[in-house]
């Protein structure tokens, strides 16, 4: 993608790579896009800004899901040294806005007509008190499964469309000596998989439990079944799953060491980076039982309050660039996500990307688009973290049954609310 927006790097970009001091027209960007696929996508943004003479001071904080990045951010803000721009998810944006830490993008939003092209589900997080405070980059979703095509062919089975078929495929893979599921045992990854368990119980149930935080839904029979399925999935992992990074789990599927990964569509970025093609090398499906629904998370760049007109101008220019249709297509093709605007053609996207765009439009139209709990789009951080504890416990054999886990979840959420 290098060179797409400009053939050569500008002096500002070169300088940005060699100094840690932000010049007036630079943007300092805190983010957690450090895997191969993520970095490739980020380069699309860096290159485009470089083409406009905006330098990039990189502040990467590794750790999928962004927990470590958010810890670093707090330290920076407490020290009175907020970065210009920060990759951020859902409720975290609202939290920082509520504290008065974010700037105002209304000027560029009005000029570019964001209200008309950015879906309401994203505006709900990108605006605070009626004002734009962040620029949505993409829409990811968590209810995906990435399957190694050769491993699936070995089972002689079709792609699973419901829970029972999924279990049959997993059993067949196990018999064939393939680790059925590649997983990284980190709380955010456990929770990412669990999003799908709850969504497979139905959109209404998902909303009742994860958005309304209804105690009966959280602790009831459907949640118990969601946990039973989750605990069952934990029996298909290899012995070394604990604390494995998500992209290393993707690599297991890419290499054929494992059959599938249940993960958001950032995983597709890894498959593409490895030169794999959807349909030929890997297959993408919605988690069985969730086709028609989408549990989404949208990466946004929240703009912090900065001093100096030139810095504010750089923020506005960055936001404007991010929302341009050209960027939205070029970036999301590489990242595995889909555009944050409704009017970007799917022409340049591969089949999984086209499916992602169509699924999102369908879910948005029929009311089955829900915010991902795992990625901070269903409930604020305190609740999310309480849920993580119980979900990770369940992944690691803490509960004798789904019922026990559901009871624990209801109690943990009640304490965190
Ligand atoms: C998500 C984020 C994605 C991807 C993923 C793994 O929270 O929305 O863009 O980066 O974490 O790092």
TrEMBL record:
<dbReference type="GO" id="GO:0042597">
    <property type="term" value="C:periplasmic space"/>
</dbReference>
<keyword id="KW-0732">Signal</keyword>
<dbReference type="Pfam" id="PF01547">
    <property type="entry name" value="SBP_bac_1"/>
</dbReference>
<dbReference type="InterPro" id="IPR050490">
    <property type="entry name" value="Bact_solute-bd_prot1"/>
</dbReference>
<comment type="similarity">
    <text>Belongs to the bacterial solute-binding protein 1 family.</text>
</comment>
<dbReference type="InterPro" id="IPR006059">
    <property type="entry name" value="SBP"/>
</dbReference>
<keyword id="KW-0813">Transport</keyword>
<comment type="function">
    <text>Part of a binding-protein-dependent transport system for a sugar.</text>
</comment>
<feature type="signal peptide">
    <location>
        <begin position="1"/>
        <end position="24"/>
    </location>
</feature>
<protein>
    <recommendedName>
        <fullName>Probable sugar-binding periplasmic protein</fullName>
    </recommendedName>
</protein>
């Amino acid at each position: 993608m290098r060179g797409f927006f400009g053939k050569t790097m500008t002096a500002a970009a070169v300088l940005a790579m060699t100094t840690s001091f932000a010049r007036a027209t630079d943007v300092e960007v805190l983010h957690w896009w450090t895997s191969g696929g993520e970095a490739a996508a980020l380069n699309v943004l860096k290159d485009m800004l470089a083409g406009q003479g905006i330098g990039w001071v990189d502040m990467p904080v590794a750790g999928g899901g962004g927990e470590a990045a958010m810890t670093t951010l707090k330290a920076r803000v407490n020290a009175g040294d907020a970065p210009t721009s920060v990759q951020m998810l859902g409720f975290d944006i609202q939290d920082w806005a509520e504290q008065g830490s974010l700037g105002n993008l209304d000027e560029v939003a009005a000029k570019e007509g964001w209200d008309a092209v950015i879906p309401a589900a994203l505006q709900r997080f990108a605006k605070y008190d009626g004002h734009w405070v962040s620029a949505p980059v993409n829409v990811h979703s968590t209810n995906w499964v990435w399957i190694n095509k050769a491993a699936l062919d070995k089972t002689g089975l079709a792609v699973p469309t419901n829970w029972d078929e999924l279990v049959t495929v997993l059993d067949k893979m196990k018999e064939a000596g393939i680790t059925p599921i590649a997983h990284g045992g980190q709380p955010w990854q456990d929770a990412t998989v669990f999003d799908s368990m709850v969504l497979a119980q139905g959109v209404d149930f998902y909303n009742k439990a994860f958005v309304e935080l209804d105690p009966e839904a959280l602790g009831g029979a459907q949640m118990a079944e969601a946990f039973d399925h989750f605990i069952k999935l934990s029996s298909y992992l290899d012995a070394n799953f604990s604390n494995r990074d998500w992209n290393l789990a993707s690599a297991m599927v890419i290499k054929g060491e494992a059959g599938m990964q249940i993960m958001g569509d950032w995983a597709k970025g890894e498959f593409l980076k490895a030169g794999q093609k959807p349909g030929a090398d890997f297959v993408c499906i919605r988690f069985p039982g969730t086709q028609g629904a989408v549990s989404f998370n949208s990466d946004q760049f929240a703009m912090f309050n900065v001093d100096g007109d030139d810095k504010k101008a750089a923020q506005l220019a960055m936001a404007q660039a991010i929302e341009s249709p050209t960027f939205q297509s070029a970036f999301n093709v590489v990242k595995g996500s889909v555009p944050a605007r409704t009017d970007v053609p799917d022409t340049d996207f591969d089949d999984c990307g086209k499916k992602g765009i169509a699924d999102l439009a369908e879910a948005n139209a029929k009311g089955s688009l829900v915010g991902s709990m795992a990625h901070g789009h269903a409930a604020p951080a305190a609740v999310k973290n309480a849920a993580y504890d119980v979900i990770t416990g369940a992944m690691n054999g803490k509960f004798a049954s789904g019922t026990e886990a559901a009871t624990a979840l209801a109690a943990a959420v009640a304490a965190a609310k």
